[in-house]
Design brief:
The chain is α/β, with parallel strands linked by helices. The protein is built from 20 helices and 11 strands. Helix content is 47%, strand content 11%.
Length: 447
């Protein structure tokens, strides 16, 4: 199980007299005074570190509790040391003080996305700023256009912060839309409250791709920079400011279909009969979206989530051809500029694609609720971080049921590299008091 692997990994990292002596010997003795001092400092640091891991019984079941514990004692208030028997004492050396200070200032969600040891998992939820909140509905009555709300910096900032003031999530996500950058690359759209996104001139030819779709003009997106800067100023490092983008394939569905669709037949016919058009469009979108993500990062986003909302309708073979290569193109371009910024991938109904999502190079795979978290962990590499994955409908349950489901998910996700989230966006009629239970439960939990 993942817990057995974690226990073995921890044991392999523990220092004993024999391992200390191995670290203290060098096959290449220091030659200069500077080398000797660095060698001496390292030996002193190793000697000052004490990590003890008691013998524990570890279940091999993927639904087991944490190492050395029984499921019955898992609670939001039991300290880590009592439930795992793990104790660690480390004397900080002068050379580590700067790194320790940098890590201490890092928001909890970023730490989790980097796989660091933390006292509890961070928590946020997709669509956390939206219609389930009365304060949002009141604002929407005064500002009836979605594009006005999402493309006016003051309004976007206010809406983004509504759940922050109400629930103190560990992630504060930009209030925007995945289609927001399209006009900046030559594709105009509108969002109708009763019909969703509409594109008047959908892409249907290679000439349109060549002559209509152009390099992203970031000057069309000043409100995004202003909003992200305001969010960072307000929340500081108390929460992670999240940017987000639509994936190339998902954006292409709108650009080619011209609206939302259940079957995506227009796009799929083009994929199978005129794939050159689709690939040309996907390539342009991928590079533009990478530039947009970098713009968000440089404006204040500390992590970026990609939504490939409709890639779940693809067969695995089509995903490998029309989605995965352009996700990777995006990741490579963003990481070339910002290698340390975590990137998250989410695909609705994407359980069958988990290993493919991981292969694109994202730091975190966001898991939807159609797969058990223990099964997701078993399919992914131990080093891959996860997000999710409760069914949004569970927030209509009672307090005990909500708490139980959250604790079950946390247990199955393991002690590191997990961000608590829903498996999809929160539903518009979800009771606000139940959303509060969701956030409070995770905030009060300790490993």
């Amino acid at each position: 199980s993942s817990f057995a692997k974690e226990d073995a990994l921890l044991k392999s990292r523990s220092f004993s007299p024999s391992t200390q002596s191995r670290h203290s010997r060098s096959t290449n003795p220091p030659k200069t005074q500077k080398d000797k001092k660095q060698f001496k400092d390292m030996a002193a640091f190793i000697a000052s570190t004490s990590l003890s891991i008691p013998t524990t019984s570890t279940s091999t079941s993927t639904s087991s509790s944490f190492v050395g514990t029984k499921p019955a004692v898992l609670s939001v208030s039991t300290p880590l040391s009592k439930r795992t028997g793990l104790s660690m004492t480390t004397k900080a050396s002068p050379s580590t003080k700067h790194a320790d200070a940098s890590t201490a200032a890092m928001p909890l969600l970023v730490k989790a996305a980097k796989g660091m040891q933390i006292e509890r998992p961070p928590v946020w939820m997709m669509r956390q700023a939206g219609r389930y909140m009365k304060v949002y509905r009141d604002l929407a009555e005064k500002h009836t256009s979605f594009r006005e709300r999402s493309e006016t910096a003051d309004l976007s900032t206010e809406i983004s912060l509504q759940p922050w003031y109400a629930f103190k999530p560990d992630g504060v996500i930009l209030f925007s839309d995945i289609l927001t950058p399209l006009p900046g690359m030559g594709i105009n759209f509108d969002i109708l409250e009763d019909k969703g996104p509409i594109i008047d001139k959908p892409i249907r030819s290679l000439d349109q791709v060549k002559n209509t779709v152009h390099e992203l003009d970031l000057n069309t997106l000043p409100f995004v920079r202003e909003t992200l800067q305001s969010l960072r100023k307000t929340v500081g490092n108390e929460a992670t400011v999240l940017g987000f983008v639509g994936a190339p394939y998902t954006l292409a569905t709108y650009c080619i279909e011209g609206k939302t669709s259940k079957s995506y037949l227009t796009l799929k016919k083009m994929m199978y009969n005129e794939p050159a058009i689709v690939h040309a469009l996907l390539s342009k979108i991928a590079m533009n979206i990478a530039e947009y993500a970098c713009y968000q990062i440089e404006s204040g986003a500390q992590a970026v989530q990609m939504f490939d909302s409709w890639a779940g309708v693809l067969s695995p073979i089509d995903y490998d051809v029309f989605a995965a290569p352009y996700q990777k193109m995006f990741v490579d371009a963003v990481k070339a500029k910002h290698p340390d910024v975590p990137l998250i991938i989410y695909i609705s109904q994407g359980a069958v694609l988990l290993d493919r999502m991981e292969a694109a190079g994202f730091d975190v795979v966001s898991v939807d609720w159609t797969i058990d978290m223990a099964d997701a962990r078993a399919r992914l590499k131990p080093t891959t971080k996860v997000q999710g994955n409760m069914d949004p409908a569970f927030l209509y349950g009672n307090k005990a049921g909500i708490e139980s489901r959250i604790l079950d998910t946390i247990k199955k996700a393991g002690r590191t590299g997990h961000i608590v989230n829903l498996g999809h966006g929160v539903m518009p009629t979800t009771p606000e008091e139940n959303v509060k239970i969701y956030f409070d439960t995770v905030r009060n939990f300790r490993y």
